[in-house]
Amino acid sequence: MLVIKKKIFPLILFIGLVSTIIGCKTLLAPEYDKAIVETVTSTSEKTMSFLAKVSEGTSKSNFSEREKEYNDLIGAYDALKIKAKARPIPKNTATKKINELLETRGNSLSEDYPSAFAFEEISKTLKKMKETDNESGLKPTAVEAFKGQIETFLDQALTYESFLKR
Amino acid sequence: MNENVIELINDIKEVATNILEKDISTVRGFSERQVEAIAKQTIIIQKGILNGDIDEDLKEFFLDGLEAMALNFVNTLKGILSVTIEKVWNAIVDLLWKAIESIT
Asked: From which domain of life does this come (chain A) (predicted)?
């Protein structure tokens, strides 16, 4: 009898523990959105092609020839930011518990949208580039720096969005 | 320890290790690219300031940009970490659920 009790007690305990956890199957990050990844990919190609075109620098005298391209790209990244932010970030008991555990080690899970932030920064970079181009034209090293900034944020956005595909 | 418990522990270890190994290799590649990109950007800004291609106004803009890049690099890593924890958590829950189903 004692042996049976010894075998059954851990089993009951185990089932109790598991039943508690089962209710906690969770979502800790937004859902993957194929449309966002596809749009980022096509917009980044257009952006890189535009940056290659102005890599030698520009003159403000023919800024009007580039204005539409700036506006199209800025609009595309603003739209991507809205799309990325439109997905809710799950907030549930599991997230809270995991954050409590991580905070004891000085960390926490992100409650922000790294891709939306990156799209916003790319849009800001293109706006600054457009403004400078219009006022004084762009020098080659300045174009290189604008390109470096855009590429880094694009990598962050694409890596994060692709990673959401579980 | 009961054989079933040992088997379950091994299954949990295996599923968690598989997810972590795959995700860590992605994180490593991303981190290397980002660190290199941020370092390169710093050099480009220095070069632009020295040769006069980057004026005072652009210098401020690019320095703010460097700060934003570093901040969002960390936030992207945190975002990736959330997904990895979620995958491990859910895979373990799945295993436990299957273990319960097999004895009920």
From this structure: Bacteria
State how far the alpha carbon of B69 is from the alpha carbons of A104, A114, A146, B38, B52, in Å: 27, 11, 13, 7, 23
Q: pTM to 2 decimals?
A: 0.84
Out of B37, B83, B96, the one facing A166 most closely (by C-beta) is: B83
- Please give the radius of gyration of chain A, using alpha carbons only, rounded to the nearest integer: 24
Q: Is residue A166 within 8 Å of residue B83, measured between CB atoms? A: yes
Q: Which residue of A has its CA nearest to B41?
A: A148
Question: What is d(CA A151, CA A43) in angstroms, rounded to the nearest whole number?
Answer: 12
Whether the Cβ atoms of residue A22 and residue B93 lie closer than 8 Å to each other: yes
pLDDT in tens, B20-32: 988 998 899 999 9
Distance in Å, alpha carbon of A68 to nearest chain B alpha carbon: 22
- The answer to whether the CB atoms of B80 and A160 lie below 8 A apart is yes
CA B2 to chain centre: 37
At A68-102, the pLDDT tens digits run 999 999 999 999 999 999 987 777 666 676 667 66
Side-chain-side CA neighbours of A143 within 13 Å: the count stands at 19
